[in-house]
Amino acid sequence: MIVAGFGFRSGVSLPSLRAAFALAGQGQPLVTHLATAQDKLAVLLPLAEALGLPLTGVAPDALVATSTATCSVASLSARAVGSVAEASALAAAGAGARLLSPRRISPDRMATCAIAASVNLQGTPT
């Protein structure tokens, strides 16, 4: 499973989400799922529907328990996690998941996206 995790500000637009997704996905395997914080699912739903991908909501405790590669002051302040995008992708991809692409920021700085892969029993991304 390849998961694109998202973090975004209030008032984010679909073009901002698409831009962050495109930046994070460059050179990465085909994304199979989208994820974000549970309370933000409704905002990401139009992108999930447009892409035909399943959408997963990540609980606040799972976000906080996930170690991220990057750290945003805004994310730390709002969610107590370094990157909502990275934490969402990793948590949704499951135990042992690894980050393929750290968070990428849309040009308008309204959305971030990171890509993570679940790992099979041999330790290979799936």
Automatic annotation (TrEMBL):
GO BP term, example: cobalamin biosynthetic process
Q: Which Gene3D superfamilies match?
A: CobE/GbiG C-terminal domain
Write down the Pfam families for this protein, in alphabetical order.
CbiG_C
Q: Ranges for the CobE/GbiG C-terminal domain? A: 2-116
Q: Which InterPro entries does its entry note?
A: CobE/GbiG_C, CobE/GbiG_C_sf
Question: Which SUPFAM superfamilies does this UniProt record tie to the protein?
Answer: CobE/GbiG C-terminal domain-like
Q: What is this protein called?
A: Cobalamin biosynthesis protein CobE
- Organism of derivation: Sphingobium indicum BiD32
